[in-house]
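pinned: reference chain
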Amino acid sequence: MLRRGLRIGAGVALGGVTGGAALGYLVVAGVALVVTGGRARHRVGALAVRLVALDRRRVHRYLGPSVAGEAEAGRAFRYLLARVPVGLFSGLLWVLLAWGAVTVLAMIGGWFIGRPLDGIEATPVTVPYLLGLAAVLAFLTVEGILAVGRIDRWTADRLLGPAPGAEYERRIAELSTARSEVVAAVDAERRRIERDLHDGIQQRLVAVGMLLGRARRLPTPDAKLAALLRQAHDEAAEALVELREVSWRVFPAALDAGGLPAALETVADRSPVPVVLDVELDARPVRAVETVAYFVISEAVTNAVKHASASRVDVLVRGSANELAVTIRDDGLGGATPDGEGLTGLHRRVRALDGRFTVDSPAGGPTTVEAVLPCG
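pinned: its C-alpha cells
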C-alpha cells in the first residue's frame, strides 16, 4: 500500500510538471497559429500528439494501465487543455506539502537550538497543538494528492479512451467473431470425425465383409455354420451402409471435393422423393457459409420427407459476392413450427453467421424455408 501511494505521488508530481508544460505549449501554439495564420497547425498538432503520448506513459507507469492507441490532434488538444488545471493543482499540492514539511522541521530545529520560529516557544500546549495541526494538514494534503491521481487517471481514460459505445461495439464484434469461430471449430471437428469413420471403422468393416464373403465360398459340411456366416456377412454389409449414412450426415466429403453444387446433387440422389435443384453461384462461398447452407438444405429436405409427407422438394440457391440465399419449398402437409428441434438448430447455425432464417408453413402446406447468409 505504501509503495503504491509513493508511486501515485510521484506520478502526480510529474503531472504537475507536464501540466505546466501543457500550459506553456498551449500559449506558444496559440501564438504560432495566430502569427502564421493557421499554416503551422500540422506541426502544432504533431507536437500535441507527442506531448500526449509522453503524458500517457506517465499515467500508465505511475497511475495504472492507460488506454492504448494514439490520440489524433483534436483529442490531444482537448486533453492538454484539461491537463492544465489538473497539473497545476497537482503542483500546488506538492508545494504545500513541501512547504509544510520545511516549516515543521524549521520549527523543531529552532526549538532545539533555542531560536523559536516566529517567536513560538516550545510549551506543553504549543508542541502537541502545532504537531497535531501539522499532521492533520499533511494527511489532508496527501489525500488530496491521491485524489488528484484518480482524477488524472480518469481524465486520461475519458479524453483518450474509446468514444462512448465503442467498447460495446468492440465487445459485440469480439462475440460475433468468437461465435463464428465456434461454428468453424464444430465444422472442422465434423470433418475430422468423417475422415476417421471413412479411413478407420469403414475400412475395417469392408475388410470384415470381404473375409466373411470368402468364408461363405469355402466348402463346409455344416449347414448351421454356413447360415451363420451368411447372416454375419449380411449384417456387416448393412452396418457398412448405415456407417456410410452416418458419415455423410456428419459431414459430406463431396462438399470439400466439389463444393455446394456437388454436395446438393448427392442430397438429391439420396432423397426418396424428387428434389429439383436450381443453383446459381457467382463464386464459391467461403467454407463456413457453404457448410451452413448445405446443412440448412439437407435438414430441410429430410424434414420434408419424414414429417411433411412431401412428394416434391424445390431448392433454389443464389449466391453473390455479398450474400448467399437459399430457399427450400415442398408440397407437403405444412404445419412446421419454427421452434421445432430441427428448425431451431438450423436457425442457430444461420444466426451464428449473422444471417436471416425464416419458415413459412401454413397448415396444408406448402412449407418454405429461407436462409440468407452474408458472405462479406
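why pinned: Residues 166-217 form the longest helix (52 residues). The radius of gyration is 39 Å.
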